Predict the structure of Alpha/beta hydrolase.
Amino acid sequence: MRTTVRPAATLLLVSALLAGGAHVPATAQDRVGSVAVAEYDLGDTAFTDSQSGTVSEVRAQVHYPRRPTGRLPLIVMSHGSWWACDSKDTVEWPCEEGSSPFPSYRGYDYLGAALAARGFVVVSISVNGINRTSFDYGDRARLVNEHLRLWQQLAAGRGGPLAGHLVDTSGRPVARDLTGHVDMNRVGTLGHSRGGKGVMWQASDKHRGEWPAGVRVRAVLGLAPVKFDVPEGDHSDTLITKLPFAVVTSSCDGAVQEAGQEYLDDVSGLNTIDDYSISLKGANHNYYNTTWTPPYLFGEDDSTCPAQELPPSRQQDALIAYATAFFRYELKGDQDGLPVLTGERTLPDVTATTRVAPAHR
């Protein structure tokens, strides 16, 4: 593996108010207005896992180019473990009367908008039912697969549930706008915290046979992912050797530390394609999600080094830059992002350590 440490660099950033305040690099400021926002909600009990019996909602926020042309790569994002409802006293799923589902899936609106401005369809899914009733990572992986199954139906022109439920912020159906414009052969996934292990599970060599027909995942990003094996030493459920992945960790992460770097250790000498990681100095765990960040309800600063921590906007901007570089390179073949992944080009306003696990040949 190759390790490079890069100093901070300065780049003018602009703040765009998109669904909760997205911070978009200046290079995209002329494009953020071209991003459309939609959502779908099939209900709190729309999906029952055939293996575990876990009951989950099927709900998501979607960012996409306002005037899509051609077939665009799809990125599915999955949040981690947090309060399932907006009352801490709630103990069941669905939320009890007087309480509503907590909008953790909306905490990545800034990232969805930035990626959509660069030609991706981005779907951030809600995982509250699993957080309330199950900590099983197979449940998280299979919920991702359920959303991919629905998108495959839409992309293939077969309609399906999304045809009648995908609406913009005014309630106007928008499925027709995207039908024929989503490339299910170029799918990326991103998971935060427990969701990070969930997407590693979903894309692993062991579980890739469970992908819906017509779907091909080509890039995976674990964001501050949890990392532990059950049984200890058996990492087969999350071992990815056949497609590229990247890991983002934080030096001041008070929740999972930097255990996610072990995913690169697991694959060293086995991977057939280059894999990457970055550690952001001063970043914490929760600031990647705006709904987990103070002053939002239940927001927490989990930093282990509060005197040196990055402000939320800077941490989020760094994620935008890295995720954009990774997905553009892996899903679009855009070589411009490769120096960011290798550490040859620095991220704005942060100090970071990069690693590369070169393909074993």
